[in-house]
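User: Predict structure, ligand adenosine-5'-triphosphate.
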Amino acid sequence: MVLKLLFCGTVHTLLAKGFPHSQRSLRFSWYWSSQLIQLQKLLVLPLRLLGVAKLLVLFFSILERSTKIDPDDSEAEPVESLRGEIELRHVDFAYPSRPDVPVFKDLNLRIRAGQSQALVGASGCGKSSVISLIERFYDPIAGKVMIDGKDIRRLNLKSLRLKIGLVQQEPALFASSIFDNIAYGKDGATEAEVIEAARAANVHGFVSALPDGYETPVGERGVSAVRGSKTKNRNSQAVLKDPAILLLDEATSALDAESECVLQEALDRLMRGRTTVLVAHRLSTIRGVDSIGVVQDGRIVEQGSHSELVSRPDGAYFRLLQLQHHHI
Ligand SMILES: Nc1ncnc2c1ncn2[C@@H]1O[C@H](COP(=O)(O)OP(=O)(O)OP(=O)(O)O)[C@@H](O)[C@H]1O
Ligand SMILES: [Mg+2]
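Assistant: Predicted complex:
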């Protein structure tokens, strides 16, 4: 920057004053350039301080940002039992940290109790965000999320979440035993309940075969060799709650083909009698669901069973299928 100023200043003075005076002009430019360097040095500290101040303001604004969602609002209606009907009606949504980037614009989705609904679409289209809205990690900007016909903002969140089983995209486990990790799914779970949940998630045989069985450590320093065990554990946690609603975000994505097959069988069994929302990248894993919704441009642009959607060669699902075939 300084060199550029020096060069431009010199050329400018040479052109303006003519070459005979170039010696004097050069001295003149050197003088101003050295002054500029001093000025720049003087400005560095205040500019740095300004940067630090900006960071501090951001930091304090984050600290002061209180969540509007109270998980245990005593005024809200407690949830005793659920049929499991879900509806997102005219939902507009943007993440609080990026309010000017809309994720959904008039999104509508209705899932009948006991039905399975898959969500598909390009990465970043908002599949996981639908799950987050159903779990009420966030509230929509406009429109509402309803469960059994009630706006979930009117329901006591803690009791609602007890009825919802969630298996997330990035399963995180505690650095503890497999037993503790499964038991985390329910307060005061007994050994029999943990084993039953593990059986339901098709993981009991696999855990029992480990040298330390249910006491095998997992998580941070645990058995990294046990491929896919994290996802399986998470599934067992979700089962333990015996939820009316199951939310599966890429539940089988961390698994190899063989484990995926085993888990798929378990999931099919689990889904029976529960409303299930599944997010899947691999379209082959969702052929049997009751309904598939394609998320695109902040809305559900197409919905129907696999056989209905494949019969529309101009449709969004058909295009996704073709794209996936090209990648395989
Ligand atoms: N916590 C967050 N804060 C701000 N923006 C977010 C957050 N989570 C997701 N987004 C943005 O919201 C949009 C939708 O993201 P989302 O995770 O729902 O997509 P997705 O369909 O699940 O993608 P993928 O298939 O990659 O999992 C993306 O543009 C993403 O960058
Ligand atoms: Mg996602």
